[in-house]
């Protein structure tokens, strides 16, 4: 997309010697434009909504917002974009959930050229992993607005009481979880997601840190030695040192165990931290520690992703005005405000600005900054049919938790996942 500016040409009239002066370029070239912007019900959307009067006054653009729950949003966007709607201008979307489908169908505008033109807006300021998430086939299809990484939550008081240092490797995590596990006192060394599909995203950091991935060059690799080791480690931690019922745990159930003071370690998304530090939700709110994901054979490689992005409808009739809105909403100034409101952004400059960190716990901010150094830009298989794919690669997680043959489960998962990859070629 190439931004266009209307140029007014002064034409000489009659035989006068003085040319007609060129009118001044308008500082509000899109005044009167109305944008339809479709958002999720999300704290970021609430925070940016409060800033909209500033944008509207500055540009003369009227932004008409619509908000929907996540699944409703996906359904609405899919239905309208399938019909070729021109009325949606900008949209919130989840790059790893529906982004590949939206891009393949031509619903998202390629922002590669536009994003590289504005040096003040500064594309280079965005974190590499976050940009990787919204890049498909070397084209930029969205701008990151909310980011996420996997970190290790732990009980500071229990580690101190037992003179145990924070685990820096997965082997150290296994040893610490074993030592601190005491089911007779309803204290478990470890808790995490164990439900087949929800567990995949948090398992992914184990996979990457062992040196594996879900696929390589179109070939499924979830039965590689690295993947099997990751499955086994994740499963052993839950089977040997986790609470009962872990097979049915998504993040709310796993967090509830930690909130009730019944677990020492919990690896999960950094974006969920307030569920543990809010005294209204957690009985251990003042005892929560934050640490980078422990290293495996390949080092510490947690996922580092864009969980939500802004996209531009490829068929919008207001391309330039919509891009102005997206630039404003993702500018350094607005990202700072959004981050101060509790929404972890993608700009390196904001994470390096004390003003961008002041509302986060110090240890949390340091952990996030360290975790942003990785460029593993996905936390699940990179496919269109993400539901079946997550179900396939999540099978060995549950096999490992139940003490079953992990290699056999991984082979079956690899076959099922390869069929999905082949279907999408």
From TrEMBL:
InterPro entries in alphabetical order: Bact_solute-bd_prot1, SBP
Pfam families (UniProt xref): SBP_bac_1
Signal peptide, first to last residue: 1-19
CDD domains linked to this entry: PBP2_TMBP_like (cd13585)
Highest taxon, organism lineage: Bacteria
This protein's UniProt keywords: Signal
Cross-referenced PANTHER family: ARABINOSE-BINDING PROTEIN-RELATED (PTHR43649), DIACETYLCHITOBIOSE BINDING PROTEIN DASA (PTHR43649:SF12)
The name this protein goes by in its record: Various polyols ABC transporter, periplasmic substrate-binding protein
Species the sequence originates in: Desulfosporosinus metallidurans
């Amino acid at each position: 997309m190439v931004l266009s500016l209307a140029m007014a040409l002064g034409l000489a009239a009659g035989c006068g010697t003085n040319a007609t002066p060129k009118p001044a370029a308008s500082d509000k070239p899109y005044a009167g434009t109305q944008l339809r912007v479709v958002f999720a019900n999300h704290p970021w959307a609430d925070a940016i909504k409060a800033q909209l009067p500033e944008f509207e006054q500055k540009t003369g653009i009227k932004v008409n917002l619509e908000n929907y729950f996540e699944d409703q949003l996906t359904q609405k966007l899919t239905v309208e974009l399938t019909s070729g709607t021109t009325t949606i201008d900008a949209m919130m979307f989840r790059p790893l959930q529906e982004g590949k489908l939206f891009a393949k169908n031509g619903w998202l505008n390629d922002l590669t050229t536009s994003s590289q033109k504005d040096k003040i807006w500064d594309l280079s300021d965005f974190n590499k992993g976050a940009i990787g998430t919204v890049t498909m086939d070397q084209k930029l299809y969205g701008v990151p607005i909310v980011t996420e990484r996997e970190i290790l939550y732990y009980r500071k008081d229990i580690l101190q009481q037992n003179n145990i240092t924070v685990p820096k490797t997965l082997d150290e995590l296994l040893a610490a979880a074993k030592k601190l596990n005491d089911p007779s006192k309803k204290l478990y060394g470890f808790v995490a997601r164990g439900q087949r599909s929800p567990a995949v995203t948090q398992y992914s950091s184990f996979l990457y840190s062992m040196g594996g991935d879900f696929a390589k060059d179109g070939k499924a690799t979830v039965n590689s030695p690295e993947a099997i080791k990751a499955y086994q480690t994740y499963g052993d931690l839950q089977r040997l040192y986790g609470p009962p019922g872990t097979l049915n745990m998504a993040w709310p159930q796993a967090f509830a165990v930690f909130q009730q003071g019944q677990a020492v370690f919990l690896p999960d998304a950094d974006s969920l931290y307030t569920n543990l530090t809010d005294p209204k939700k957690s009985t251990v709110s003042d005892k929560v520690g934050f640490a980078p994901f422990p290293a495996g054979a390949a080092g510490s490689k947690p996922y580092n992703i864009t969980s939500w992005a802004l996209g531009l409808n490829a068929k919008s009739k207001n391309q330039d005005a919509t891009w102005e809105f997206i630039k404003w909403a993702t500018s350094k100034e607005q990202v700072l405000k959004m981050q101060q409101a509790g929404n972890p952004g993608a700009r390196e400059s904001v994470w390096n600005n004390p003003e961008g960190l002041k509302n986060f716990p110090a240890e949390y901010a340091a952990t996030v900054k360290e975790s942003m150094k990785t460029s593993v830009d996905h936390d699940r298989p990179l496919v269109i049919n993400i539901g079946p794919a997550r179900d396939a690669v999540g099978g060995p997680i549950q096999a490992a938790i139940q003490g079953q043959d992990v290699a056999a489960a991984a082979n079956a998962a690899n076959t099922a996942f390869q069929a999905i990859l082949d279907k999408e070629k």
